[in-house]
Specification:
The protein is an alpha/beta fold. It has helices spanning about 5-10, 60-70, 90-100, 115-125, 130-145, 160-175, 190-205, 220, 245-255; strands spanning about 15-30, 35-45, 50-55, 75-80, 85, 100-105, 180-185, 210-215, 225-230, 235-240. The protein has one domain (about 50-70, about 90-255): Rossmann fold (3-Layer(aba) Sandwich), CATH 3.40.50. The model is unreliable at about 1-10 (pLDDT under 50).
């Protein structure tokens, strides 16, 4: 069985709800005041969904992303990931889940500048103790899948912004995660490159990957299948996208030459 088939089988055997939060609260102490970033959020995200999390600055969307990404722990409430209760785990246990089960994509790519694309993609495998030969094979495979077969030995400074984000996506995929979390993945990219990145995320979702992105852009959120809007630490709206943007079709249309009359 190939790694892709195995990953699909694992995802298929998971509970239908990949992410389940119940009464999620996150509070911070600012001076002598307690500030609630989340005020009791209950959300369910199924396996294979593509969800955009939206909201203005201070709405709680980034806090929600940090909690479901195991980058932080809630003050109160429960979080289940693939049927496992995550909210009470230790820091070491959360780190293990981040490395093995969640792939992260950030706005600024977060690549090591003095390390080539292949070595950047290998990093999660290095931290997981995967042998060198297997690291190289898996990292090369993911770089080929994101269209960078001829850029593996290039350093970030030798790559365009879109190519750097593709390296970041390959790195997010290299451990065969069950979930991709992308925080403003197109925020540093031009319009066409943003389309290419969203097309790649849509393809991953069609292949069965659960994808959750944080964005403040409505046109980017329309590439997802479902939008969740946050305001003041609460879910304000949660609805399916009525007209989903198709990145592949939009790229094809943009490449079509205009015929003279």
């Amino acid at each position: 069985m190939s790694p892709n088939q195995d990953a699909t089988r694992v995802r298929t055997n998971m509970p239908e709800a990949l992410i389940e939060t119940a009464g999620l609260v996150k509070e911070y102490l600012v001076g002598e005041q307690t500030v609630a970033a989340l005020r009791g959020v209950s959300v369910s995200i199924q396996n294979g969904e593509f969800v955009a999390v939206m909201g203005p600055s201070g709405s709680g969307k980034s806090t929600f992303m940090n909690l479901i990404g195991c980058l932080d722990s809630p003050t109160r409430g429960d979080y289940m990931l693939a049927g496992e209760r995550i909210s009470a785990l230790s820091g070491d246990a959360l780190a293990a889940i981040r490395n093995k089960r969640i792939g992260f994509v950030f706005q600024q790519f977060n690549l090591l500048p003095r390390t080539n694309a292949l070595d950047n993609v290998e990093l999660p495998l290095l931290y997981a103790g995967v042998p060198a030969a297997e690291r190289h094979q898996r990292a090369k495979k993911r770089l080929v899948e994101v269209g960078l077969a001829d850029r593996m030995r290039h350093h970030p400074a030798q790559l365009s912004g879109g190519q750097q984000q593709r390296v970041a996506i390959a790195r997010a995929l290299v451990n065969d995660p069950v979930l991709i979390l992308a925080d403003e993945p197109t925020g540093a990219l031009d319009s066409r490159t943003s389309l290419e990145v969203m097309g790649l995320l849509q393809q991953l979702n069609r292949d069965g990957m659960t994808v959750v992105i944080v964005t403040h852009e409505h046109d980017i959120a329309a590439f997802a299948r479902r939008n969740i809007h946050f305001r003041d630490g609460l879910v304000l709206e949660d609805h399916p996208v009525q007209k989903i943007n198709d990145a592949e079709a939009m790229l094809a249309h943009a490449a079509t030459p205009v015929m003279a009359a």
